[in-house]
Predict the structure.
Amino acid sequence: MKFKKITIAILILFTAVGCTENFDSLEKDPVALSANPAGQLTFTQLCMSGDGFYQWRANLIYSGGFVQHYAGAWNVTEFGSKFKKDDGYATALWRNGYSNELKNVIDILEKTSNDPKAVNMNAVAKIMRVMVAQRITDLYGDIPYSEAGLGFSKGIVTPKYDKQEDIYASFFKDLDEAYNQLNAGGGAVKGDLFYNGDISKWKKLANTLRLRLGMRISEVKPAEAEKQVKAALQNGVFESNLDNCVMKHLDATFNDDPAAIDFRGNGLAYAFNGNEGGDHFSTLVINYLRDNGDPRLPMLATPKTTSSIVSGAPLQPGETPYEGVKPGLFQWEVPTGSSSTSGIQSYYKKKTTPFLHVSYSETQLLLAEAAFRGWVSGSAADYYKKGVEAGIKQLEIYGAPGASVADINTYLNAKPLVAGTEKEQIATQLWITYIFNSIEAYSNWRRTGFPHLIPITNPDSETNGVTPTRLYYPNDEMQKNETNYLEALSRMGGTNDWLNKVWWDAN
């Protein structure tokens, strides 16, 4: 029954979106996805941000709670701030990422590998494979990768768990191959909702991902990290916000039942609405933006409607209009009521809200760190300034009113990169840039240790206030793939525990 529901959902998805030239051909053969790489590319791209099931659980509740982007909602506080285990939340990305995304990408690779007319399609699939698997391995550690998705084609139903170090080596190889494959005569890339088949954009994305992943291993393998960062920059990374990898969504009927998801809407926006207005930015976010005069504050948050000094009263003279919710606190536990805290602007809660996967702001901030380390030429301060400016302007893609040039310049001039605090400043700006992509923020926080999080002192925290450093594997892997699962655990600390670290986390 579940398979039938999924098939129906896919049929609706492919016949109703109608936003690329390729949907005409998809309508002619909507069921035979195994013979239609374009359809599978579309489906995979939609899933990556349209999957309300794991956007709600892996991105909002756990990652968003862990890095203290959000606070106040029951599930974010109970599980993401108090660090309580919920198997459905912890395994959501694993289950849907493998079954919906990685499997389709592997199919595209197999169908295009020997087709001279599909060289570019094959290259794009290599990039997509890295994008999908990167999120999974960064959250879980050692995972099935080299043998994943080969159950039907090669009969591998118990894939080995590759070491994360080996997976990253494969990432770099695949991204380099994809960059060199992409060419004007390599055939059309159809079904592409990211860049509509623009080969030059895909080449930049391959290099920008290489930069991200190079910096991700900076603390555990710095020489290799430097090599990959230099190669990425030389080949050409994002040059402006026009290069951003953005997924545009539709106002689709939505639910988070894995058997009947319509992936066309923004999954994180669906989660915000599903939490019934309980989501707020944390005090860590609001205080950072407010106290530094950051023009993003009104672009992100709504002013509070009642005083945080006198309960239920209007704002008092001189009182700040912006307050967050302290991590570990439910919204109804705020002493002066939840109306005395700032909400999240409504344009981030629409199902049509775009999702930003990879950005120019991220690119420049990572290059700022690389320059600080002496790995690339150029001024770390200049890269930093460009990254912050791009991070402010990128909020306009969501419908936020743009900050004025004067306000941006005032902020940039008042808050330059300061000697002695470079790593913390850069990492904290990345944390803000990743604010709706908390999975990436969580990874960068584990790599750098910044920003400094607010201590969790709740007595019912299952970890005594210690932030988890990974998500744990689905427990049914013990039944499905026992030998490989146990071998992976032996490398991951011996137990399926979320306080063990992934390979690149040397912080």
